[in-house]
């Protein structure tokens, strides 16, 4: 894969990397025919972000050659190493004219070369690891509610919450207002907790299509990273959400860039609920009521199971659905499939890969026949 | 304003006596070489040289010529002593390090000779501080024997182009590799850290390149921890000259312009890393 980013877009790329660094420790690079995708997932797999840079974003874009049976090469690198190259955004803007990215699988090197002022060239040779496709299963079409606002409105709203605040609840209120409130654990003592709540009028949003009485709780920290990117790019941010427990999807759209941030949300249970793992693979078709009480025991169950869920499935990431043609100017659907939260190095279910490969990033091409069935069956010794 | 210190009781004159209207002319240069606690001071008729060394591999010298001082007199041919550079800097900046425009600390320095402490009289806004810093037997200093005739490769760069590079050096790399060549890549700085390798190339026709005299392709490696302190000198300087000799010894000379526009020099000498140094293409 070879691509060249020129001028102001270098800074955009740098900001995207900064944003992704707030999510996970590894940066996944996936060149496709439809553009270069940079992705990250957090360790608990409850947050997933992807930045897809269309070929037009680049001065030159060559995803590489593929044979009939081979896939485009993809890899992951340490986030720190990649971020280090784009660490100082002001100096990127000031001195970098061009950025060249070369992925040479045979030489085992990922080369990033910055062409700077005064003829100076900075070349970084990064080590990478081959990896499986990192995908999350989500579908914005199936979300009952949708909000779209300029990033600035949301940034100004979020500034009222402390930086250390973990979770925030977004919901609808009387008079069509949209509210934000910090999420307080049930065990917290009312006398020692500060509750901040703010309401935004409908007209602050570019579009509001929400199911009345709906609300979701998600991790604010992970959202902030995307928010600062959105603000800097001056793009409107769209929030797709559904019932509590189902993932919230934040999208940013532009002619050359498509950004998705998928966050798990707290389920609405009587007792303390947790963000279920974002693992889209389960062997039970419906959520069960025996939801484990605390996240820890749930996660332990996740980790110890041999690739399958022992508890109830994650209802957060639904199965894939057909996606509309890419020519739509508004938010595009993107179904991807979350990697099994299994033992690292375990190849994903071959079934999934062969079904999903090639369908995600192909603009304009109709999707291959897909079914709504329980494809998310855990096949690890259990199917 | 400078003021006179009382002469020594016995009537003999000080071995070294100097006064400086603005102590920052001295303190900022000393900071550029402050990577070890102790320094060796050598005063001659031409001025003051402060030397700091580490690991028998690296030596930094700060030169403050006699002309920078309002008064500078050395009795014998030369006067030399070892002193705590940290304490000296603390005293020179005793009135604070932030510089308000128009205010400066005046300095008078006196040294009676071998065995005597270095006396500093500092004054700012009418407040006077007297400091007495003990001196020690001077150490034997390294002699890199680096003279112009032995220089193989030499370039002079505008510091602006290197500052950011040095500040962002991958410190997980043990070495800084410097390649100088009449052919591509001309001048290259490389690191080999945990993230991978990084190379910074400066072409010979770059606007930053003030002079380019490379006769032979040389690649040498230096311990990055030893060279990193030179970033301070680089930050103060407007130009830097980078020279290597046949053995791969490195000389970095920084031209520093002080607040009054006067020129001072700081230089760093460094031995190549024994294990790996070679002249290679």
UniProtKB/TrEMBL annotation, chain B:
Keywords: DNA damage, DNA repair, Nucleus
Gene3D superfamilies per UniProt: 3.70.10.10
Record field: transmembrane: none
Entry's Gene Ontology BP terms: DNA damage checkpoint signaling; DNA repair
Alphabetical list of InterPro entries matching this protein: Cell_cycle_checkpoint_Rad1 (IPR003011), DNA_clamp_sf (IPR046938), Rad1_Rec1_Rad17 (IPR003021)
Top-level lineage group: Eukaryota
Gene Ontology, cellular component aspect: checkpoint clamp complex
Compartments in which it is found: Nucleus
Quaternary structure and partners: Component of the toroidal 9-1-1 (RAD9-RAD1-HUS1) complex, composed of RAD9A, RAD1 and HUS1. The 9-1-1 complex associates with LIG1, POLB, FEN1, RAD17, HDAC1, RPA1 and RPA2. The 9-1-1 complex associates with the RAD17-RFC complex. RAD1 interacts with POLB, FEN1, HUS1, HUS1B, RAD9A and RAD9B. Interacts with DNAJC7. Interacts with RHNO1; interaction is direct.
Function: Component of the 9-1-1 cell-cycle checkpoint response complex that plays a major role in DNA repair. The 9-1-1 complex is recruited to DNA lesion upon damage by the RAD17-replication factor C (RFC) clamp loader complex. Acts then as a sliding clamp platform on DNA for several proteins involved in long-patch base excision repair (LP-BER).
Family: Belongs to the rad1 family.
PANTHER family from the UniProt entry: CELL CYCLE CHECKPOINT PROTEIN RAD1
Protein name: Cell cycle checkpoint protein RAD1
Organism this protein belongs to: Erithacus rubecula
The organism's taxonomic lineage, starting at the top: Eukaryota, Metazoa, Chordata, Craniata, Vertebrata
């Amino acid at each position: 894969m070879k691509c060249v980013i020129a001028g102001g877009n270098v800074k955009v790329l740098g900001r995207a990397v900064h944003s992704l660094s707030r999510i996970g420790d590894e940066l996944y690079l996936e060149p496709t025919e439809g553009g270069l995708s940079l992705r990250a997932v957090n360790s608990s797999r409850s947050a997933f972000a992807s930045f897809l840079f269309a070929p037009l974003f680049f001065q030159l874009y060559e995803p590489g050659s593929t044979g009939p049976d081979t896939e485009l090469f993809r890899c992951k690198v340490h986030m720190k190493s990649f971020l280090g190259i784009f660490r100082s955004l002001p100096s990127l803007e000031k001195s970098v004219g061009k950025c060249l990215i070369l992925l040479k699988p045979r030489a085992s090197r990922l080369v990033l070369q910055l062409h700077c002022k005064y003829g100076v060239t900075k070349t970084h040779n990064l080590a990478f690891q081959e990896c499986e496709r990192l995908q999350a299963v989500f579908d914005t079409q199936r979300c009952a509610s949708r909000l779209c606002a300029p990033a600035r409105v949301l940034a100004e709203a979020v500034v009222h919450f402390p930086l250390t605040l973990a979770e925030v609840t977004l919901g609808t209120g009387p008079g069509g207002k949209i509210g934000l409130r910090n999420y307080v654990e049930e065990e917290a003592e009312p006398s020692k907790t500060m509750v901040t709540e703010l309401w935004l009028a409908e007209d602050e949003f570019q579009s509001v299509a929400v199911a009345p009485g709906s609300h979701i709780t998600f991790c604010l920290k992970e959202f902030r990273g995307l928010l600062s990117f959105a603000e800097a790019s001056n793009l409107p941010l769209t929030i797709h959400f559904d019932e509590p427990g189902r993932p919230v999807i934040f999208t940013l759209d532009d002619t050359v860039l498509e950004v998705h941030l998928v966050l798990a949300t707290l389920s609405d249970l009587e007792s303390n609920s947790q963000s279920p793992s974002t693992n889209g693979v389960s062997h039970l078709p419906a959520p069960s009521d025996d939801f484990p009480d605390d996240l820890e025991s749930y996660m332990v169950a996740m980790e110890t199971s041999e690739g399958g869920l022992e508890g109830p499935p994650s209802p957060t990431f639904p199965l894939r659905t057909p996606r509309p043609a890419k020519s739509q100017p508004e938010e595009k659907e993107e179904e991807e499939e979350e990697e099994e939260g299994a033992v690292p190095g375990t190849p994903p279910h071959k079934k999934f890969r062969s079904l999903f490969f090639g369908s995600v990033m192909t603009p304009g091409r109709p999707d291959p026949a897909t079914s709504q069935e329980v494809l998310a069956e855990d096949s690890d010794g259990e199917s | 304003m400078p003021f006179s210190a009382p002469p020594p009781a016995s009537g003999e004159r000080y071995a070294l006596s100097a006064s400086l209207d603005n102590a920052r002319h001295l303190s900022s240069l000393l900071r550029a070489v402050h990577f070890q606690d102790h320094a060796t001071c050598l005063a001659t008729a031409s001025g003051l040289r402060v030397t700091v060394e580490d690991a028998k591999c690296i030596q930094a010298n700060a030169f403050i010529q006699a002309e920078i001082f309002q008064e500078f007199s050395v009795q014998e041919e030369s006067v030399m002593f070892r002193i705590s550079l940290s304490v000296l800097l603390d005293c020179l900046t005793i009135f604070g390090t932030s510089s308000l425009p128009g205010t400066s600390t005046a300095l008078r320095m006196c040294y009676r000779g071998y065995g005597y402490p270095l006396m500093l009289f500092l004054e700012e806004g009418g407040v006077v501080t007297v400091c007495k810093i003990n001196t020690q037997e001077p150490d034997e200093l390294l002699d890199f024997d680096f003279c112009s005739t032995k220089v193989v490769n030499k370039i002079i760069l505008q510091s602006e182009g290197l500052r950011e590079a040095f500040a962002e050096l991958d410190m997980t790399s043990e070495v800084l590799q410097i390649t100088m060549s009449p052919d591509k890549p001309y001048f290259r700085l490389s690191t080999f850290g945990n993230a991978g390798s990084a190379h910074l190339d400066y072409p010979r026709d770059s606007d930053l390149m003030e002079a380019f005299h490379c006769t032979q392709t040389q690649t040498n490696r230096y311990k990055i921890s030893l060279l990193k302190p030179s970033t301070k000198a680089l930050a103060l300087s407007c130009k830097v000259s980078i020279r290597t000799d046949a053995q791969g010894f490195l000389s970095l000379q920084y031209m520093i312009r002080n607040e009054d526009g006067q020129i001072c020099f700081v230089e760093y000498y460094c031995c190549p890393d024994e294990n790996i140094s070679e002249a290679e293409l």
